[in-house]
Amino acid sequence: MPCPIARSLERVGAWWSILIIRDALHGFTRFDEFQKSLNIAPNMLTRRLSALLDAGLLQRRRYSKRPRYEYILTEMGRDFRPVIVAMFAWGNRYFAPEGASVLLVDKKTQAAADPVLVDRRSGRPLNERDFVFSVGPAASERTRRRYAVIKEKQFAAQQSSRPVRSSLQGRKRRAS
Fold first, then answer.
1. How far apart are the C-alpha atoms of 23 and 28, rounded to whole Å?
2. CA 62/CA 81 separation, integer angstroms
3. pTM, full prediction
4. Is 110 left (phi over 0), alpha (psi -120 to 50) or beta?
5. What are the structural domains, with CATH classification, of the chain?
6. For 66-121, how does the pLDDT look when each residue is reduced to its tens digit (9 = 90+)?
7. CA–CA distance, 19 with 117 (Å, rounded to integer)
């Protein structure tokens, strides 16, 4: 599947997987820690951990002479943190009518953060006014056709949102 979103969901699409990564980002590493934190059935946890291992988000490391293992985030797993932060912020904004139960705070000041995704190169917020999705160098012909349609829709939307000049204003300009 060429879509990066679909490919990502193949690896972490199960909500248990995302919660396991969240807990791993909090420092949980052992099976019993995940199980207790998530209140998840052992067979389900085993399946989700195996899937995360296979996807390369976690690695297993032996921690005792008996065959006991802990699950450590890989670089790929740690790089999932911005996704977790974005989901956290979105959830607090739209699905916490009683107020936030968890905050993201500055370690030094304890001030609550208001997460926003930014472009690493420019530092500008990734809003839909300034940034759009586009085909990449490895795009298939199908993807190129799909994004051509998307570009047409964006252009049409942009044209329909522009203020319409009255015919009188147009005549005045032509007359001068």
1. 6
2. 25
3. 0.81
4. left
5. 4-78 (1.10.10.10), 119-176 (no CATH)
6. 889 999 999 999 999 999 999 999 999 999 999 999 999 999 999 999 999 999 99
7. 21
